[in-house]
């Protein structure tokens, strides 16, 4: 069966690496997504897998705008130290709202001094060109429920 809109694609393995060849994300078990622009997979990967079958191995280079976006220096914030818990340290994450937006942003602490805390609202992989590699394990037609929900059910999928 070929990959087309409203098929469930199961990947045996996927790996994201940066230009230095370091792995920044990889699967530890098979993953499935609903193909056809439901937001379950990078659009560039979906486009490259369109029409392919089980067994197909993909390796694709993606620019930041195709993955986690360009790095936005405006999302780097300096906040007063007393606005954070006593034990705040580098690497901690906090939720925060962007002004004039209802989106919840995740801010990661990147520096702490006696007076200030620097937080970064960019995705940790923002601004990076990334190489995505995967192998297609299986392709099946999605059920009507899956299409209406916009995600995969069953093994490796969404559990209700
Ligand atoms: Zn569902």
TrEMBL record:
EC number(s) recorded for this UniProt protein: 5.2.1.8
GO biological process: protein refolding
Keyword Iron: no
Major localization listed first in the record, in broad terms: cytoplasm
UniProt KW DNA repair keyword: no
Catalytic activity: [protein]-peptidylproline (omega=180) = [protein]-peptidylproline (omega=0)
UniProtKB keywords: Chaperone, Cytoplasm, Isomerase, Rotamase
InterPro entries the UniProt entry points to: PPIase_dom_sf (IPR046357), PPIase_FKBP_dom (IPR001179)
Subcellular localization(s) per the UniProt record: Cytoplasm
PROSITE patterns referenced in this protein's UniProt entry, alphabetically: FKBP_PPIASE (PS50059)
Cellular component GO terms held in the UniProt record: cytoplasm
GO MF entries: peptidyl-prolyl cis-trans isomerase activity
Tree of life domain: Bacteria
Top class in the EC scheme: isomerase
Segments forming domain PPIase FKBP-type: 6-90
Coiled-coil regions listed: none
Similarity comment: Belongs to the FKBP-type PPIase family.
Function of the protein: Also involved in hydrogenase metallocenter assembly, probably by participating in the nickel insertion step. This function in hydrogenase biosynthesis requires chaperone activity and the presence of the metal-binding domain, but not PPIase activity.
Name of the protein this chain belongs to: peptidylprolyl isomerase
Gene that produces this protein: slyD
């Amino acid at each position: 069966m070929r990959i087309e809109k409203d098929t469930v694609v199961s990947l045996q393995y996927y790996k994201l690496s940066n230009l230095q060849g370091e792995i920044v994300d990889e699967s530890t078990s098979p993953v499935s997504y609903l193909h056809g622009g439901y937001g379950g997979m990078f659009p560039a990967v979906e486009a490259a897998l369109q029409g392919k079958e089980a067994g197909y191995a993909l390796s694709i280079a993606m620019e930041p705008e195709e993955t986690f976006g360009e790095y936005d220096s405006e999302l780097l914030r300096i906040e007063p130290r007393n606005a954070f818990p006593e034990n705040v340290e580098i690497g901690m994450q906090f939720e925060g709202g962007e002004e004039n937006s209802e989106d919840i942003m995740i801010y990661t602490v990147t520096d702490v001094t006696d007076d200030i805390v620097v937080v970064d609202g960019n995705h940790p992989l923002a601004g990076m060109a990334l190489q995505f590699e995967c192998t297609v394990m299986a392709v099946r037609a999605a059920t009507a429920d899956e299409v209406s929900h916009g995600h995969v059910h069953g093994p490796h999928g969404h559990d209700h």
